[in-house]
Structures are given as structure tokens and as C-alpha cells.
Amino acid sequence: MFSIFGIPAPLLFGQILLGLINGGFYALLSLGLAIIFGMLNIINFAHGALFMMGAFVAWMLLNYLGINYWFALLLSPLIIGVFGIVLEKAVISRLYKLDHLYGLLLTFGLALVIEGLFRNEFGSSGLPYQIPPILSGAVNLGFMFLPIYRGWVVVVAFVVCLATWLIIEKTRLGSTLRAATENPALVQAFGVNVPRLVSLTYAGGVALAAFAGVLAAPIYSVNPNMGSNFIITVFAVVVIGGMGSIIGSVLTGFGLGIVEGLTKVFYPQASDTVIFVVMVIVLLTRPAGLFGKTA
Fold this sequence. Notes:
The protein has a single domain (13-285), classed as ABC transporter involved in vitamin B12 uptake, BtuC (Orthogonal Bundle), CATH 1.10.3470. 71% of the residues lie in helices and 3% in strands. By secondary structure, it is mainly α. The mean pLDDT is 87. It is globular, with a radius of gyration of 19 Å.
């Protein structure tokens, strides 16, 4: 068994894999946040609660209706997306002309309400969600054993992030979305239903959170606190990448996941704070974020 920098290879590559998995969740969640902020100008603190709801919907589909993981990957984001439309129409739409602070406080309150409801109903101990049989087991790569499901999470998270970026940056729909945020009156004059477009944008952002929740369900126990465990770190990722930057959220999410994983190998005491240290350094040197637009 060989070692790298005095670290056994299985340990080093295992932590890199763990970093990539966390990075995948950071990227998906921060991508949804970046879409909502970049397009709607709302800081959505309820994002972690919607991530948790995605996992719980998958769990309920399996245990109450017998609907398996593969269908849950499609149905859970769709259900949370519809819930997001209702939420946007009923509550979020009232904040667009107000200061960011009002959106932050309101969505923080929504997160507390949602988490409290699920905690009262299901408790805090966590519920298991089985890995699909086809993705169970591990592959021997020679220098480490790669759990198939964890490899699947990394790949599918990257593909979804890439597809989302291509849709927003390279398609006519994405151009219309960006134009609607810059000059909604002009886009409305061309016959585009801007309020509907805004609602669908919010739905798309929260659907990404729900999709991440389904991916996370077999790895972490499904519990009401799983979103709050991620959301603070994800906000740090968004700030580092640049508020509203799509590509910044994806690259920074995966990159910081790897940094966090390597820190657990070389200096474990700093693993819980390294992302926040990076955030402070970035804010001091580039306040708009690594990929953000400077004024």
C-alpha cells in the first residue's frame, strides 16, 4: 500500500471522495440560491428547509406509496417546485421591491416554521432511506474502494449543474430570464408573461434543492435538521463564488468540498472552519466574490 505525503492512499483519496460528495451538495444548493438571487434578487434562507423537504418527500413516496428512488428523483423536485410556486405567489412576490433584509428575515422565518412542522411530525432522530440495489456495493480501484452510490452522487451532481448552467447561459430561455431581471417592463411588452417566468425561476431553484435532498437521503439520515446543517456553509460558498454567479456557485462548491476534505486529512482541527476562513480572505481581497461582477 503506497502513501502520498506520508498519508496512506486509501485515506487521502477517501477524503477527496468525501469532499467531492459534499462539494456536489454545496454546488447544487448554491446553484439554486444563485439562480434565485441572480434572477429574483431574493436571499432565500428557506433553501435548506426545502432541501430537507426534498429528502422527506422521497422518504414518504417510498414508505407510504411504494415509489422507489428513481421515480423520487423526478417526483420530489416536481412536488417541491410546485410548492415553491405557491410560496412565491403567496409570500415571496411581496418582497421584490423591498430591501434584501426583508427577504432574508422572511425566508429565515419560513425555514424555522417548515423545520418545526417536520420535527413535530417525525421527530429529530432521523429516518433511514435505503440505497437502490443497483447502486449498492463498492468498486475496487486498487488504491481505494469506491462506494458506487457515492460515485453516482458526484457524477449526477456535476451533470445537473452543467446542464443548468448551459440552459441559463446558452439558450433562448436563459436569455429571456436574464432580460426579465434587467428590464421586466420591456420583456413584458414583447408578450412574455414575466410574473409566470419569475415563479418558474423560483420553482427551478427550489427544485434543485429538492433534487439534492433526494441524493442526500441514502447518505445522511432523513431528519428535519439536515438542511440547517448545510445552509450556513452553502451561503459561504455562494459568497465566495459571487452572489448570483452560476458558474461561480458550481466551481466554488466542488472546489471547497475538496479543500474541506483535504483539510480533514492534513489539519483536522480546521476542517469545520476552513470554508469560512476562505470566505474571509476572499471578502477582504475581492468583495464581489471570485466570479462576481465588480461595480
